[in-house]
Structures are given as structure tokens and as C-alpha cells.
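ingest -> validate -> predict -> emit
validate: passed (alphabet ok, no gaps, 588 aa)
predict: started
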Amino acid sequence: MRNLLMAFLIFGIILLILPLNMVAKPPPNTVECDMTSCTLNNGYGVWGDRRTCTSPTISYPTTEEELLSAVADANQNHLKVKVVTKYSHTIPKLACPSTQSNNTMLISTELYNSGIQIDAKNMLVTVDAGVGLRDLINKVEGAGLSLVAAPYWEGVSVGGMISTGAHGSSWWGKGGAVHDHVVALTLVVVGDESQGYAKILKLEGNDPLFKAAKLSLGLLGVISKVTISLEPAFKRSITYNFSKDQDIENEYMKHGNKYEFGDIVWYPSKHTAVYRYDNRVPFNTSGDGVYDFLGFQSQSILVSSATRSFEKTYESTRDTNGKCIMASTFIGYKKFVANGLKNNKLIFTNYPVIGTQAKMQTSASCLYSSPLRLDLTCAWDPSIKGLFFYETTAIFPASKFGDFVRDVKKLRDVTSPQKLCGIDIYNGILVRFIKASNAYLGQIEDSVVIDFNYFRADDPKLPRLNQDVLEEIEQMAFIKYGARPHWAKNRNLAFEGISKKFPNWSKFVEVKKKLDPKGMFSSEWSDEILFGNVEENGVGCALEGLCVCSEDRHCNPSKGYFCEQGLVYLEARVCRYSPSKISNFDIQ
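emit:
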């Protein structure tokens, strides 16, 4: 009864508040400075390994000349450098120059954001790296053109978007990854004394440097300007089909080929697959819809805090049923409001929802402020006690994805569907499609991408409810099926053995050594994934994905979690709740 009352309370508050959520209190800037130094964080308020990232110096260039000067100063003074933006939603510490902060410098592109030059004749746009995605999209649409590929979250800068491999969903044309629509870019790199300690490279075409630079993780230099291909303006027609998931392991291939922008949301605990029927239609087709994704809308601080509080209670009391009621409530509401699709910019009334590409591809309404509703913000805003989660993103060769789905279904059957309710509270398993890329750190074949979010404890030493099931799925993806990680997401373990998964890895490293011979743009984290310099093996390291457990101490035996083998993928090693072992462990 208590769980039902909580579910009705959440649902009632949502119904009362969400229709008003057109604006929000924007989350805090990820860079905070005082008189002595600047502290950098990500949009969730914490990095993966919980170490503080600080730097005594930050530069805010507004032009390419100022950007060049900042890189030259850093090179001349032997400083480690990383580029930051006001968004920074990466889970790995991509933007942190070093844990030894005294010899570092941050370069922020927040003010380098005014240049957007459209070449309508050749359908190209050249844009400063710090320009926000929404500003770019609006400018392009105003010229009667469309940006075909973009991520679903618009709170990114252009430079950050292509540096981390951000993507939408498509196997058509050039595909869903934004960097595959980049035709040229300029890169500020280190130079010798005769070159003023920094220089600008203009890269395009089949230049090996271009293939490395258009998805570079910020490891080669500072992206200054990016040229992206465009298409004539078009509209899209979207319909969501809620179906049973019994054949998803076969249907995904047909779906990706049939719908230009199609995706699938899989709620495994509910045996439900939501197929997005999403194709372009002529620009003169009637309809003025928008896609204001529910998860990116501004939320009442009360709702976000209550959701977090309920989930923490269910975790601490090991109440799987409570989590499942919460998941059912949220999924039902998403179906009711079409997950944020709105006919004629107002509310959802019927399918299909038809609108311009600019309004149907990407959203983030919680980023935009209003003095009238400061009780609203993004649900994960670190300044409130709202959602706190991890995100696992795995990229499979298309041919292997069906077998992975079959294994997840086996695991669901061996354990219980209820043990997967934790991810269905968020957005289930989002399935998207990206094409093969010639970027050295891109995908070498047409691929399927999955994303799923799940509860993260405030205390890094605290295990999660049903942790073993999610860890087995994670290890199935990255170890058994060799999936590649998304560069801006994932826990550390996803990057284990990464160099073997990219045939062009050595080519990228060669370019890295050529353009940044002293490692000015490197960090401890990038060295870990590029060269395998660090291996985590400490007490509790498996709880936050810093390692795959091999000993009980890597879990939390005092809380009843021990390192055991997987149930379907037997080679997996997961932290499983086994309270009967506690007394034996204490004796040892």
C-alpha cells in the first residue's frame, strides 16, 4: 500500500506540474573560480573517480587569434591544457588536464561562440567551436536548410559534440554521427619557437590528420572552426508504437533500415519495445510539432527530489517491487504524453506528430531560464537533491546485437524481470543506429548503440540493488560481444582493452605523437585509455565500475556483496548480494 501511495503521489505531482515546464532555472556553470583557482566539474556535479579537478589558470578567448595566443602561452610555459565548455556532461574526465593542478590551464570556448557562416549555395555551415547546438540549428533553419545529424540532447557545443562522437540515430545517408557530416575543420596545435609556439591547421578530405581530428577527444589540439554539410530544409513525421518485445532481436535490423531516424526504447522489465517510426516528409506537409523530450524538460525541484528520495528508500530497504511500481508509473505517463512530442507546439493529441527537423531532432528545454519559475530545473541539477545516475553506452557491430538481446532476455528469465525495473525508471534501453565511419576513433562498420541509465549511490562505497544483473549486462556488452564505449559516457571498466577494438588505433596514436609530441593535451585519464598506464585494483573498486571484481574486497562484503560469476555469461564477475556469506567472511 505504501508503494502505491508513493506512485500515485509522484504521478499526481507530475500531472500537476509538467504541462507548465516550458522554462527552467538553468543548472550551474561547470566551471567555478575563486581568487586562486578554478574548479571544473561535469553537469552532474561529480566525476567518475571523485577526484577534484582544479587549475590555477583559465582563458576565455573570443576569436581564433585569442585562441591561438592561449595555446601559445600554454606551450611556452609548459602547461597541460584542456578545453572546457559551459555544458560538460561527460562522465569520464575528458576535460580535466591533470590531478597535479599547478602546471595546468583551462581554455573555455564559452565566449568563442559568435561565428556562424552559412554557404547556402554549397549547403555548408562554418561555425566557431564554442557555438551551442541550438544556436546553430536555429541559424541554419532560418536559411532554409537543415542539419541532418545531431544528438538528442542539445546542451552541447559544436566542438565538444564532434570531439566525443555525439550522435543521433540513422543508417541512412551519412548516418547519425555528427562527425561524419563534418567536411573540414581548423585545429590549433602546438608549434615551435619559430612558429610562435602555436599554429593553425586547416584539415579536410582524406588527410590522415583530418580523420584523426574530427573525433579526437580533445587530444590533438583545440578545435577552432568546423564546417558541416547541410541539406534543404525538411520535416519529420514521428509515431511511437508500444509493442511486445518478443521479436526485438530480429526486428531491430528491419527497423533501422526502414526508418531514417528510427530508434527503439526497450523496457525489459515490462516486456515492452517502443518503436519510433520516424521519416522525413516534404517541407510543405502540414504540421508544426515539436519534440520536447520528457527527460530533458524542466522538472519541479519537488518532483526530482521526491523521485530520488523514493528510489533511495527502495534501494536501502531492498524493495524491488517499489522500483517496479515507480517504473510502471513513469512508463505509463510517457505513453500518455508521447514522451514529449507535441502537436502544434502545445500538447500531444494524436499521431503522427509532424514538424521541422530543427524542432524534432534535439531538445533541452530545462536549460533555459525564467525569473517566474525558479522552482524548475533539469532533474539532475547538482545544486538540488535530484536524480543521480550512471549511464552505460555500448556500440555493437550490427550483426552481433541480436545475440546480445537474446542473452539479456535469458538473464531476465533466469533472475526476474523485476530486477531490471531500475533501468526502466529512467529510459529503459535506448537503441539507436550509426553508420560506419572513416574517423580513426569512429565505428568501422554499421553499428547499433544502446544507452541505459541506473541509480548511482551518493556514497561510492554503497552497493546498488540488483547490481549484479546490471554488471552482467555491462560485461556481456563490452567483454563478450566486444562492444565499443561511447567516449563521453560509461564507467571506467568499459574502456578496458580499448585499443584492440579500433583497427585504426595506431594511426590515431601516430597523429597524436606528431601534433602533440610533449603530451600537452594529454591527461592521466587519456593515458589510461590510450596506453593502458593505470589499472584500478583497490577496495570497493567494482562498486563504481573502476574495475571488474576478481576478489570479494572489490565489492562490499560488510554489506553482503561478494564477487561471484555471472548467471548467463559465466565469465562475468559481478558483485552479488549474498547475505549468507557475511558470517563466513567475518570469520576469515
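Residues 11-23 have pLDDT under 50 and may be disordered.
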